[in-house]
Design a protein that fits this description.
- The complex is a heterodimer.
- Chain A is mainly α.
- Chain A has one domain.
- Chain A is 85% helix and 0% strand.
- In chain A, helix 2 packs antiparallel against helix 3.
- Chain A is elongated and about 65 Å long.
- By secondary structure, chain B is α/β, with parallel strands linked by helices.
- In chain B, strand 4 and strand 5 form a beta hairpin.
- In chain B, helix 4 runs parallel beside helix 6, helix 6 runs parallel beside helix 7 and helix 7 packs parallel to helix 8.
- The longest helix of chain B is centred in the C-terminal third of the chain and has 17 residues.
- The two termini of chain B are 29 Å apart.
- The chains are: A mainly alpha, B alpha/beta.
- The interface between A and B is medium-sized, with 14 and 24 residues.
Chain lengths: 260, 282
C-alpha cells in the first residue's frame, strides 16, 4: 500500500472542506438566481418528505413510547408519575424529535442523494449536463437542499406529535395516568424557547443532510465502488455532523435563552 | 454514381471565412496526478472542418474535448473557442458558450431517469419558456435525423448501445450548434452501426457544415469520412469520385506522449514518412 505524507492528507482534508463550503454556499446563492426549478423541488419534496413519512411515524411513536416507559419507573419511585407528560414533551420537542428524525432522514436520503449523484458523475451525466449549458448545482443540488430543509421541518413536527402520542398510550394504558392530565402537563411545560429550539434544529439538520449527501455524490470517483464509498461516507458524515451541530446548537440556544 | 454535392467543390477552394478557426489550442498543457497528459499542444479547427484525433489509450484525446468545452482547465496555455478564451472564463460564463457547442460522450451519457424525448429536448427546455408541445417538432426532427423517431417514449436503458449513441447525437444537434465534439462515437459498436454513425457525422459535416472534433480509435472511420460525401438526393453517404479523394474538409491529428506528432489532411498523412505514423496507419 502506498504511504501518503501527513501534509498531503491535511491538504486533501482542507481542500474537501473548501469544496464542501463552496457547494453549500452556492446551493443557497442559487436560490436568488434564475432558473429556479420549482418542479424539481416539488419532486424532491415528494421523494424526501412523503417517502420518509413511514419511517418518521414509526420512530416518532416508538421513541415517545420508550421514553415514557423508561422514565415512568423512576418517576413512580418519587411519586411524580403525573410529571410524565412534561418529561416526554420536553424530551421530544427539544431534543429527541429533531435528532431522531434528522438521523432517520440522513440514513435514508443522504445516502440516496450521494448514490444518485455519484452514479451520474461516473456515467458522465453531470458532465453532459454542464456540456448542455445547465448548472448541475442549480438543477440538482439546490432543489434537494430546499426540499430537505422544508420537509424535515414538518417531519419533525409530525415526529414530535407522534412521540407525545406514543408516550400518552404508555402512560394511560400501562401506568393509568389520566389522559387529560398527560396532555395538559405536556402542553403547559412547553415554553416558547423549547419550541424555537426544536424547530431551528431541523432546519440546520436538513441543510446538513442535503449538502453532505450532494457533496459526496458529486465528488464520487472510481466507478461503482466509488459510488458505494460515497454513499457510506455521506451517511456517516451527515450523522456525525448532525450530532455535533445538535450539541453546539443546544448549548448556544441555552445560553441565549438563559435556560433554567 | 450520383455527382458530389456543390458543397464539395466549394470546400476545395477554402475561403477566408472557412479558414477562420473556431477552436484554437495554444501551447496547452495538463497533467493528472503528476503525469503529463498534454504537453504544450497547439492546433486549430477551422470553420466547417471536421478533425479526427487519434492516439493510443490515455494519450489525452478525450481531455482535448473536455478542455475545449471548459469542463476542465489546463495547467498552462490558452484555448480560444468561438473567439472566447475558455481558460479565463468562470463556470457561469461558460454555460452560455456551451449552448453553441454539442457534445457526444463516449458512453452517450444520456440521463437515465428521462425518456428519449426528454433527453433530446433537455437543452431546449432548459433554455427558456418553451412548453413540451413546442419542443415536440424539433425533437421529432432531431430524432428523424438519426432515424430513431419511434424511440421517443423509451428510456435509455431500453435502447441498444448504437441507438443510445444516435440519441446522444440527436441531443447534441437539436439546437444546430456551431461546433460538435464527438468522443469515440463508434467505440464498441458493430461495423453496421458504426457505418450508420459515420454517415450521420458526414451528413452533419456536409449538410449543416458544422465544425467538429472527432476522437476515435478507428482509423477506418476517419478514412471513410475523408473519402466520402453526403448525397442529399439519395440521402446516403457516397464515396468521392477518384479525382476528388480528400477534397472534403477533413483533418487528422495524431497524439503521442502528450505532443501532436501530425496535424494535416489525408494527402499529407498518406505522404508522411514518420515511422510511428506509418506503423499507426498501416
Amino acid at each position: 500500500m502506498e504511504l501518503i505524507s501527513p501534509t498531503e492528507i491535511a491538504k486533501e482534508k482542507i481542500e474537501a472542506v473548501q469544496d464542501f463550503s463552496v457547494l453549500a454556499g452556492r446551493s443557497v446563492a442559487n436560490l436568488f438566481r434564475y432558473p429556479r426549478y420549482f418542479a424539481d423541488m416539488m419532486q424532491q419534496a415528494d421523494l424526501i418528505g412523503v417517502g420518509s413519512l413511514p419511517i418518521v411515524v414509526l420512530t416518532g411513536l416508538s421513541i415517545g413510547a420508550e421514553l415514557a416507559l423508561n422514565s415512568a419507573n423512576t418517576l413512580q419511585r418519587f411519586g411524580s408519575l403525573s410529571l410524565i407528560g412534561q418529561l416526554v414533551s420536553v424530551g421530544m420537542v427539544r431534543e429527541l424529535g429533531p435528532i431522531i428524525t434528522g438521523l432517520m432522514v440522513a440514513g435514508r436520503n443522504s445516502s440516496g442523494m450521494a448514490s444518485e449523484l455519484g452514479s451520474m458523475v461516473v456515467t458522465e451525466q453531470i458532465d453532459a449536463m454542464r456540456a448542455l449549458g445547465t448548472d448541475p448545482l442549480k438543477k440538482l443540488v439546490t432543489p434537494r437542499v430546499v426540499s430537505t430543509v422544508f420537509m424535515l421541518f414538518f417531519l419533525t413536527i409530525i415526529s414530535d406529535l407522534l412521540g407525545l402520542f406514543g408516550g400518552s398510550l404508555i402512560s394511560t394504558f400501562l401506568f393509568r395516568v389520566d389522559w387529560r392530565q398527560y396532555w395538559n402537563s405536556a402542553y403547559q411545560i412547553l415554553m416558547f424557547q423549547d419550541v424555537i429550539m426544536g424547530l431551528l434544529k431541523p432546519v440546520l439538520f436538513g441543510f446538513i443532510i442535503a449538502t453532505v449527501g450532494c457533496y459526496y455524490g458529486v465528488s464520487a470517483r472510481g466507478g461503482t465502488q466509488g459510488v458505494g464509498r460515497a454513499t457510506t461516507q455521506a451517511v456517516v458524515a451527515s450523522s456525525v455532523l448532525i450530532l455535533l451541530v445538535d450539541l453546539l446548537t443546544t448549548k448556544f440556544l441555552m445560553a441565549i435563552f438563559s435556560y433554567r | 454514381m450520383a455527382a458530389p454535392p456543390i458543397t464539395v467543390d466549394e470546400r476545395s477552394v477554402p475561403t477566408e471565412t472557412s479558414r477562420s478557426p473556431v477552436i484554437a489550442f495554444d501551447n496547452v498543457s495538463i497533467a493528472f496526478e503528476g503525469r503529463t497528459v498534454l504537453d504544450g499542444i497547439s492546433f486549430q479547427l477551422n470553420k466547417g472542418e471536421t478533425k479526427a484525433i487519434f492516439g493510443v489509450a490515455g494519450s489525452g484525446k478525450s481531455t482535448i474535448l473536455k478542455l475545449a468545452l471548459g469542463l476542465m482547465k489546463p495547467d498552462a496555455g490558452r484555448i480560444q473557442v468561438l473567439g472566447e478564451d475558455v481558460t479565463q472564463m468562470r463556470e457561469e460564463e461558460l454555460f452560455d458558450l456551451r449552448r453553441k457547442i454539442g457534445m457526444v460522450f463516449q458512453e452517450s451519457a444520456l440521463f437515465d431517469s428521462l425518456t428519449v424525448r426528454e433527453n433530446v429536448a433537455f437543452r431546449l427546455l432548459e433554455e427558456g419558456d418553451v412548453t413540451e408541445e413546442e419542443v415536440e417538432k424539433p425533437v421529432r426532427e432531431s430524432l428523424s435525423f438519426v432515424e430513431l423517431e419511434k424511440t421517443v417514449d423509451m428510456f435509455p436503458s431500453e435502447l441498444s448501445g448504437g441507438m443510445r449513441r444516435r440519441v446522444a447525437i440527436a441531443r447534441a444537434i437539436i439546437t444546430h450548434p456551431e461546433i460538435l465534439l464527438y468522443d469515440s462515437p463508434t467505440g464498441g459498436l458493430d461495423p453496421v452501426t458504426s457505418t450508420t454513425i459515420v454517415q450521420l457525422i458526414v451528413k452533419q459535416r456536409d449538410v449543416y457544415k458544422t465544425s467538429s472534433l472527432l476522437v476515435t480509435h478507428r482509423l477506418q472511420d476517419a478514412f471513410t469520412m475523408a473519402a466520402s460525401y453526403f448525397d442529399r438526393k439519395t440521402n446516403q453517404m457516397q464515396p468521392l469520385p477518384p479525382g476528388m479523394r480528400g477534397e472534403v474538409p477533413m483533418g487528422f491529428l495524431i497524439l503521442r506522449d502528450g505532443k501532436i506528432i501530425f496535424d494535416g489532411d489525408v494527402h499529407e498523412l498518406a505522404a508522411c514518412r514518420d515511422e510511428y505514423i506509418r506503423e499507426y496507419i498501416s
